[in-house]
TrEMBL record, chain A:
<feature type="transmembrane region" description="Helical">
    <location>
        <begin position="58"/>
        <end position="85"/>
    </location>
</feature>
<keyword id="KW-0813">Transport</keyword>
<comment type="similarity">
    <text>Belongs to the ABC-2 integral membrane protein family.</text>
</comment>
<dbReference type="GO" id="GO:0043190">
    <property type="term" value="C:ATP-binding cassette (ABC) transporter complex"/>
</dbReference>
<feature type="transmembrane region" description="Helical">
    <location>
        <begin position="118"/>
        <end position="136"/>
    </location>
</feature>
<keyword id="KW-1003">Cell membrane</keyword>
<feature type="transmembrane region" description="Helical">
    <location>
        <begin position="24"/>
        <end position="46"/>
    </location>
</feature>
<dbReference type="InterPro" id="IPR047817">
    <property type="entry name" value="ABC2_TM_bact-type"/>
</dbReference>
<feature type="transmembrane region" description="Helical">
    <location>
        <begin position="224"/>
        <end position="248"/>
    </location>
</feature>
From TrEMBL, chain B:
<keyword id="KW-0813">Transport</keyword>
<keyword id="KW-0067">ATP-binding</keyword>
<keyword id="KW-0547">Nucleotide-binding</keyword>
<dbReference type="InterPro" id="IPR003439">
    <property type="entry name" value="ABC_transporter-like_ATP-bd"/>
</dbReference>
<dbReference type="GO" id="GO:0005524">
    <property type="term" value="F:ATP binding"/>
</dbReference>
<dbReference type="InterPro" id="IPR050763">
    <property type="entry name" value="ABC_transporter_ATP-binding"/>
</dbReference>
<dbReference type="GO" id="GO:0016887">
    <property type="term" value="F:ATP hydrolysis activity"/>
</dbReference>
<dbReference type="InterPro" id="IPR003593">
    <property type="entry name" value="AAA+_ATPase"/>
</dbReference>
<protein>
    <submittedName>
        <fullName>ABC transporter ATP-binding protein</fullName>
    </submittedName>
</protein>
Length: 256, 308
């Protein structure tokens, strides 16, 4: 047996991507449709009466935020269901009995969930170009933020999937925590537009940093410096990895 | 021969404080068919789950073909196949895909010819393109076995393999176990269908309330603990055992129609000829005689009740 179980990781990754293909309407069409609706309502109907934000038309301004919002929710929901479902159907016994390390399992599941999120993010980006003029000033940074955010929030979703013991718990974090944070995270506005004390409060919202960094890679303007955004997302990733390391070391909610 | 599975002083206490296993020691030889017997909740599944990595042990050490299951888990798990008691499958995958998935998960490169062979052996080949949720319960169980064999394991664990299984599948399963044994695969199974252990297993381990109370070759166990019985069907019914026969450990069955005598199968003198002579002397006519051997079930009940 080699040091790394590549066939095992590949098997998980492929099985997850096959699941995506089986549920292509739900996985891809739904987020795209939702985004199109956002463009119609915010970008065209309301946006036509809005001033420019940071030198960018409102319709174009919300594009990076919308992509980020989709990346977060998709990464979390894909990865959490991917590991929760085997727990629920008990097929997880096979993962636990296989000669594959915890890290390899995580990489395969998170990799698949992130791949799917990135694909959807790119589809939304392409869709957006039909509605508003989008330009990308720093494509390298754009890709970096896209990949890092997809990976980090897929990792976060994986944690939720391991923690959850019921479908209700599975839904509770995304709906009660993540959705408010994304809506208040500057996807539809610049936090400069908020009155005090909300502007300061917003700085405690992690999503602000993600949206800001991502928007900077498009238009060269952000609510906070791009370096801070990058540090933040790396720190959040490190936190998720640390929790995951603890979970696998103790067998929390996996091994009695 | 060195054991292919060696378990030493393995204990398991769950977080609830319940102790499922008390210092289990066991060695299973390569190519053996070993049956773990015990009532529900005795700890059979816990023991298997620990060996296979599903449950962590509280203390002790287990090695599989010389590989420690904790420090060298890749090598150890790579040669183990597990068919758990409960059917749990990705119901949306096809039969062929889910079996290939298992092979990949265990680190083996694809081998379509081998997978085809397994699916044919288990009468699944015609169904290879079907989704798992379209299959009957028996077929799903066959898929579970195919998955466990997909990576060519040297040791196969079958947890209650025939619980709720029809006659055909049961027969196919035992044929398969024999074929595997011929190839040198070690098979460890749990069951409470005791006649199966008697028929299939080279050795039997009896587990009760988390303790391995006995490990013995099946034949030796039968010889050592086995009782034989003589039942005499009489011409006339009897209401009580006649005083002339009061020295014999006899009992009446079938409404006084049958007289049953149990004796030690290994005793040099069974006493049968003498009993028959005394029956004749007492004027008791009989129309049929039948002798039999006690099953493993009787032995097991005896063991557990005596609290060995």
């Amino acid at each position: 047996m080699s040091v790394v179980n590549l066939p095992g990781m590949w098997a998980i990754y492929r099985a997850e991507m096959a699941r995506t293909r089986r549920t292509v309407l739900q996985s891809v069409a739904t987020p795209v449709l939702t985004t199109v609706l956002y463009f119609i309502v915010f970008g065209t109907a309301i946006g036509s009466r809005m001033h420019q934000v940071g030198g960018v038309g409102y319709g174009a301004f919300i594009v990076p935020g919308l992509i980020m919002l989709t990346l977060l929710t998709q990464g979390i929901s894909n990865a959490s269901i991917a590991i929760y479902f085997p727990k629920f159907t008990k097929t997880i016994f096979e993962l636990l009995s296989a000669p594959i390390s915890s890290l390899e399992v995580v990489l395969a599941y998170v990799g698949a969930a992130a791949t799917k999120s990135i694909m959807i993010g790119l589809i939304i980006l392409v869709t957006a170009t039909f509605f508003v003029p989008v330009r990308i000033m720093h494509p390298g940074w754009m890709i970096a933020f896209l990949v890092l955010t997809a990976l980090t929030f897929s990792l976060f979703g994986f944690l939720i999937g391991i923690w959850a013991e019921s479908f209700e718990q599975l839904a509770i974090v995304p709906s009660l925590v993540v959705t408010p944070l994304t809506f208040l995270g500057g996807a539809f506005y610049s936090i400069d537009m908020l009155p005090q004390p909300w502007r300061t409060v917003s700085l405690f919202n992690p999503v602000v940093y993600l949206v800001s960094g991502f928007r900077w890679s498009f238009y060269g303007v952000g609510d906070v410096g791009v370096g801070i955004s990058l540090v933040f997302i790396l720190a959040f990733m490190a936190l998720c990895l640390a929790v995951l390391w603890w979970i696998f070391r103790t067998g929390y909610r996996l091994k009695p | 021969m060195s054991p292919v599975l060696s378990i030493s002083a393995v204990t398991k206490t769950y977080k609830s404080g319940q102790t499922a296993l008390h210092a289990i020691d066991l060695a299973v030889e390569k190519g053996e068919i070993f049956a773990l017997l015990g009532p529900n909740g005795a700890g059979k599944t816990t023991l298997i789950s620990i060996i296979c990595g599903l449950v962590s042990m509280t203390s002790g050490r287990i090695s599989v073909d010389g590989h420690d299951i904790i420090t060298d888990y890749r090598a150890a798990r790579g040669i183990i196949g597990l068919v758990p008691q409960e059917i749990s499958l990705d119901i949306f995958a096809t039969v062929e895909n889910t079996v290939q998935f298992s092979r990949g998960l265990f680190g083996k490169s694809a081998n379509p010819a081998y997978i085809e062979q397994i699916l044919r052996d288990l009468s699944l080949w015609e169904k290879r393109g079907a989704r798992v949720n379209e299959l009957s319960g028996g077929m799903k169980r066959r898929v579970m076995i195919a998955k466990a064999l997909s990576h060519e394991p040297d040791i196969l664990f079958l947890d209650e393999p025939t619980a709720g299984v029809d006659v055909n599948l049961r027969r196919d399963m035992w044929d398969l176990v024999r074929r595997l044994r011929d190839r040198g695969v070690t098979v460890i199974l749990t069951t409470h269908y005791l006649e199966e252990a008697e028929e299939m297993a080279d050795r039997v381990g009896v587990i009760d309330r988390g303790r391995l109370v006995l490990v013995e070759e099946t034949a030796t166990l039968m010889r050592k603990m086995g009782k034989r019985r003589l039942s005499v069907t009489m011409q006339q019914r009897m209401t009580a055992i006649p005083p002339a026969l009061s020295g014999w450990p006899l009992r009446l069955e079938a409404d006084g129609e049958r007289l049953v005598y149990e004796f030690d199968a290994n005793a040099p003198d069974t006493g049968m000829p003498l009993l028959l002579r005394e029956l004749a002397a007492a004027g008791i006519d009989y129309k049929d005689l039948e002798t039999g051997r006690s099953s493993l079930e009787d032995i097991f009940v005896g063991l557990v009740e005596s609290g060995v």
